[in-house]
Design goal:
This protein has 159 residues and is of the alpha+beta class. Helices cover 28% and strands 45% of the residues. The model has no long low-confidence stretch (mean pLDDT 90).
Amino acid sequence: MQETFVTETFIAAPVEKLFDFRLNPDNIALVAPAGVKIIEVTKPSIVTASARYTIQVNFYGFAQHWEISFEQVDRPQGLPPRRASIVGRAHAGPLSNWRHRQELEERGSGTVIRDIVHYTVPGSWWFVPVLTVMRTVVRRVFTELQLKTKEYLEKTEKA
């Protein structure tokens, strides 16, 4: 079954700073939600559309290998309110049919970030409990990712 989760947060930082932060896979370790420990990130030296990266992660006690590619990378441009987006797709990991769109839009003294996550939960006789757990995990992970990104960038913006 195809699921979608959307969350949005205002971050008091320029759109370019948020875009560059979110585009760099190394920064995942700085804002990883509780229960998610980044062990290693392997990425190309220049991140562009079609670039792939891998993450070795301990996800709530389970060692996992995630492989993700950037499908779309649209840098901030144009007249205010400037917009940007990053779209990634998983090729390996707990949800291999997973797509994450990050939309950024200048608003006042900062940027609104909207994370849109599409994923498929495998179905069988255990479908309902798995779907319930996956919805909870996806909601928690992406909400916390936004809040930790906000906290980190706003702290560094003041420094």
